[in-house]
Each structure stands twice: as structure tokens, then as C-alpha cells.
Write a structure and sequence with these properties.
Chain lengths: ~280, ~300
Amino acid sequence: MTTTTIPVEPVAQAPAPAPRGHVTQIRVLYSEWIKLRTLRSTFFTLLTAMVALIGLGALFSEFTASHWASMPAGERAHFDPAQTSLRGYFLAQLAVGVLGVLMISGEYATGMIRSTLAAVPRRLPVLWAKSALFAAVVWVLTTASALVAFLLGQALMSSHHLGVSLGDPGVLRVVLGTGLYLTVVGLLGVAIGALIRNTAGGIAALFGLLLIIPVLGEALPSSWGNHVNQWLPSNAGQSLLTLHHEAHTLQPWTGFAVFCLYGVVALAGAAFLLKRRDA
Amino acid sequence: MIEAHGLTKRYGERAAVTDLSFTVRPGVVTGFLGPNGAGKSTTMRMILGLDAPTSGSVTVNGKAYAAHRAPLHEVGAMLEARAIHTGRTAYNHLLAMAATTGIPRSRVDEVVDVVGLRQVARKRVGGFSLGMGQRLGIASALLGDPATLVLDEPVNGLDPEGILWIRTLLKDLAAEGRTVLLSSHLMSEMALTAEHLIVIGRGRLIADTSVEEFVTGAAGTSVRVRTDDADQLRRLLAGPDVSVASAERSVLEVTGLSSDRIGRIAADAGIALAELTPQQASLEEAFMELTRDAVEYQAPVREKEGQAA
Ligand SMILES: Nc1ncnc2c1ncn2[C@@H]1O[C@H](COP(=O)(O)OP(=O)(O)OP(=O)(O)O)[C@@H](O)[C@H]1O
Ligand SMILES: [Mg+2]
């Protein structure tokens, strides 16, 4: 009898099990938290936003207080003490917006996005984690900074009896609104970063939308402009930041809701494309 | 186990991969070969669900990669051109990757040691040399202790010691029953590392074979014959499919006849042979031979265009 030797097929056997875990939204959130706090740019940019908010607020408040006596009556009538101490938001939004764009464009620039999406192949948890995390961080830091800027600014102006307090009508809304506005700017940055996938392009698109378009809107004939301009993203969002309602602007919370809607649409577009496009 | 069925990828007009079907089996190291631009990296990105195939499909362990709940445990990947943020330290990069699937810090420490990066783990990746970057990529791939490894040109940039290290590592991983697919255009390296080969050219499958078969099956295998009666033997060997070259007076390079046939013909004619050696084509030559065919494969298309013009 002959024995036939059967060629030994390599047998697949399960390798020694490592701690096997599924990808969950919470885990992706934690991973993104590690990523966020382990980049230097995060610290520098957020620090810039906070310094801008507090420092510029103090500067404007001090300047206004010391020039009050020589200020024309017209300017005095329009004086908004809450907003004066929070003027720094204008610069802070640049820092927050850039960092928002970098959250995703930075990963495309370095190729990291491929590692990220290979680890989380469903992809959307990454976008949600980045958005939620960045929104939370920005909201906490800018709200705290806005409070500091407000209190500091009012203290500087109170020597001239110009200050208002948090309890005065609309003031708390303006102070908290600053953090909310900046948070949505950050979210728009994240969404645009995901849509455009390029840092320079993303930053240009974000600030084109927030800063340039409103300026162009000013050039419209007022018969149009008065209707159109209030609906532009930053104009809508900034209606939350003024104490006294101005003509041809949306009501504070209506405006903010419109601003949020822009953010939601941008994020939805980002989610749609993130799922569809090649990494 | 990786299975590709009719995998096709177009970028606009350009076809990067065309109707590619293959199976990568567990237990052996499979080399994925092809010249520059053949479509190796594109295929690997499709395996990992990073690029969507234009048509066809590819599965890992029976499921599309994206359908796995614990992807890092299924497939460990190292992609072409370091897919790592340069501003982060190696350790933090691994920590963030590990966190997505709940891999503990202790495992991160482990893989850092396995790839020998302990000294520089706390340094930022931007300052890494090519070889250090490759090692970090391999550490990333090993994190989840995956059953399948997909590595795009892992030896690229490694020093001789590093090459030896990765060769041993990959063989050991395959011996444990894992599926290991690695791409390269270094034939000589594949000969030492891989047992099985998948060769592509211009996005098409050229060969799916063992390394041994690949070399012996390649055209151009010749036989070296040394004899004092070279001229006589040459006449006897002549035939339609046979070519005989001669570098020295007493040496013939015969193509198209096996050494057995040549020996018999010489013996029948009473010619004494001083040497009769089958010349195995080197893996490098075999590879170039095959990829030359891939170029020829494209030729009819060009001709058709020429006729139309
Ligand atoms: N994102 C892309 N967009 C357009 N064309 C692409 C893209 N990725 C790859 N290609 C093209 O597809 C073909 C295959 O490229 P691929 O990178 O897969 O080759 P490769 O085998 O990995 O080459 P190499 O050995 O040089 O790494 C090339 O012609 C390349 O130009
Ligand atoms: Mg490649």
C-alpha cells in the first residue's frame, strides 16, 4: 500500500487574542481628545484666542473710558458697554476658525487622515467626534474668557460710571453669546476643513464667508442689502452680540439660530462627502 | 485571508487597477509586486476601504473592511508615504490610534519595544528619518495584534539590520497563521521574504504563483553547455524554437531545450560535455520579463487608436 502525502495547507488559526474592542463613538472621541491635546498648534491657537478676547476687551474698555469726555454725543448714544469689553471676539474668531479648519485639513496635509479612517472605517464617528470635541473645548475656553473680559472691561469703565452688570437686561445674553458665536465659528471651520481638505483653501473659504462676504454685502444697494445682509452667516450670528437691537438685523436668538443652521448645513455636507470621497 | 474579485479603480480617465482578482492566504508571506505605478498602493487602499473600487469588491476575512467592528484587530496596515501627523510624538500617535478601539497603554509600550523605537518614542515624528518612520508605521500596524497585515513597501528606507529584522518578523507572523501581504518592487528582497507572489503590471494581474514557480516558469531560462565540440553540437541542437548563443568558443547558451534533451542529443552524437548547467533566471530578470509583457499587453490599444486616426 502506498501512502500519499497530502500537501500540508497552511492552517489559519486565530492569533493570540489581544484585548479586542469595538470602535465606539466614545472611544473615537477619546482618541480625538488625545490627538487634540498632543499638538502644539492647539495650545498656541487657543491661547491666542483667549489673549485676544481678554486683552483687546480690556484695551477697548480702557480706551473708551479715558476718551469718554471728548466723545461726540452721537457716539455716546450708540455706546454699548457690554460689546466694548468683548470686542476681542473679532480677533478671537480668526484663531478659533483657523484651528477648526486645521482639525481636519491638518490630517489631510500630513496623510494622517488615512490612518484615522483606516482605524475608523465608518468615518462619520471621526467627524462627529472632532466637531463635538472642538465645540466643547472652544465653548468652555471662550465663555470663560468672555466672562473675564467682560468683568475686567466693566471694572475699567466703572471708574467713569459707564459699566453695566451681568444682571442688566440683555447683558448676560451678550456675554454668553460671545462663547456661543465663537463655538459655531469653530464648527464652521471644522466643516469647511472637511469639505475643502486643504489648510490654505479652507481658511480662505471660512474667512471669505465670515468676513469678506458681509463687506461685499455692504456694497449692495440698501433696498436689497437691508434684506439680504442680515441673513449672511456672520451678520446673523453677531446679532446675538449687540445689546441694543439695530435696524435691519435679526433678533438675537433668531440670528443665532440662522448662524447655527449654516453650521449644520456645512457639517451635513462634510459628512456626506466624507462618506463618499476617497481618502 | 484577503479576497479580491474583479477589482477595478479609475481616477477619471486613468485606470489604476483593472479587473484584479486574487486571494491572499494565511500562513505565508505574500509579496505584491509590480513596477512603479502598477497599482499596488491603490489596491492596498481599496483593501482598507480608503478608496472605493469603481467596480468589483475586496473582502478581508470574509467581510468588507469597513464592515468589521474592530478593524485594527482584523487588519494592521502600513500605508505608503507615512500616514502620520508630523507634529505629534510617535508615542502619542500610537496612543491615539490605540484609543479608537480600546487598546491599553501597555500594548502601546509593547509595540514601541518590538520595533525598537523606545529611544525616540517621545520625539515628534516630523524629525524622524525614513527608517524610523517605517518602524513607526509597522508599530501602528501591529497595535491590534491583527490577523492580517497589509504593508506598503515596509523595507523602503530600512538599513540592512532593519531589513533582516522585518524579514524575520514577517515570517514569524505568517508562521503564527496570519495573513501577510507586502508590496515591493525589490524582487531580490521578495525572494528572501515571500513564499507567494502576486505580480501586477499596469493595474492588471500578471502572475499569482509561488516564488519558486515564478522563477522557473519565467521565459528566458537557458542552459549553459561547455564542450570541445561546440560547433558540432550547435548544428545538432538547431531547431525552430531553439536559440544558441556563444560567449566563448567552447561555451553555448541554449534557450528552448531542457538540459535533459541537450544531454541526450550530445550523448547520441558521442560528444563529451564538460558542463551542462540549467541557468535559472534571477527573480529580477523574471520580473522584468513579465512586466515587459504587461507593456506589450497595452500595445494593441495604441495600434487601434493609430488606425482610427
Ligand atoms: N488619487 C489618485 N488620483 C489619480 N491618479 C492616481 C491616484 N492614485 C494613484 N493614481 C494613479 O494610479 C496608478 C497606480 O498608482 P499606485 O500608487 O497604486 O502605484 P504603485 O504600484 O503603488 O506604484 P509605486 O511602486 O510607485 O508605489 C498610477 O498611474 C497613479 O498615477
Ligand atoms: Mg505605491
